[in-house]
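Researcher: Here's a chain I'd like modeled. Treat it as a single chain, no partners, no ligands.
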Amino acid sequence: MSIDKKRWILLVIQGIIGTLSSFAYILTIFLGPLSETRGWGIPNIVLAFTVSMWIGTPALVFAGKLRDTFGNKKLIIVGAICYGITIIASAFVSSVTAYVVLIGGVSSIFMFIIYSAQLANVGEMFPDRRGMATGLYFSILNISVGLLAPIVEFLIRYYGVTNAIIIVGAACGVLMVVLGLFVFNPPENYCPKGWSPNTSKLETITAGPEYTWKQMIKTPAYYAIVLTLLFLGISGQYIAVNASLLAQNSLGVGTAAGAWIVAASSICGAVGGFLFGTICDKFGAAKAFLSIGAVMLAMQVVYLVFAQGNPLLFTLAIGSISLGYAGVGSLISTVTMNTFGIKNFGLNFSIIGISQLLASVMVPLVVAKLSPINTLVSFAVFAAVAMVGSVLANKGIKSVFSKWLAEKNAAQQDT
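Model: Modeled as a single isolated chain. Structure tokens:
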């Protein structure tokens, strides 16, 4: 089988591995049971997610260097073993501090190492459809997380929270190791048969400037992109951790119904990754960001103005956040590669990812303290700010490519 065909199978495998390494994103299912059985405060447990996002930036820098040295397969297999052991160990701690350290700190290091290696691999495998492929990766991840939520809730209900954590940790670790055996790296400078880089469209170019992180942070495009991702990321991170509790407090439903709402919201996210990744390939990342903000803003306004308390429209309102957050996930790596190049992707990606680190700080400090209605209002405000940022990002990205093309043309004339 040719690599042009094998890359699609690899994409599915990568998506499943990404799901299995995303324990932090099903933390919302464990919040209530952990609080009840161990007497831990929910805000303290949520700190695990905040710490996870803080760990992301240094872990991604470290991951990029490890991948260059050892390759994707070794990174996934070793990371999977350590990840599974850490999740299992967290089941036996009696202190919430120890739990936060293990889940938010140690397991997240391995999660981001695996995550970074996968995104770089997907981007290199699909230079012709980078946005769509990365979007499909997040679609697979969101569908799988959505299906995983009711399963985890079932395990907690019938086996208890401690045994559920052990089962999840063991299963995820073993399955990732098995799937990791089938992972391979693309050849250097791989291009699919019959395709060559398109340099005619500035925003959708797939082989252009190569910036170091120092050059990148000197561009207005960098700051506009970070601003946009920050305000799109706050809402998405809140829903990723608190969707079940928000549903329970807004609608008065139980934990089981809350888990199904989380599942439905995650399925919306599955659509978002593919949808906005495809928009990015055709129209550029900035316009994809603008589309995300518009959808998120519109759904919050519809629910708040016309349908407060309606379970279906509530699910659609938070589903639009998941839809947009999956789009953000697929676009962060794509906009980094497309705008600032592949050679320094690992480090550039981690520095652009500071936006999500800042978002994780704002979630517990701001949004988590609001009432359910005011939380949704804040989502609408954040979406509006992100739309402004996307307009600025559009100008900044065009400036980067205009400068690159001018320098390229000048060099060709000199020769």
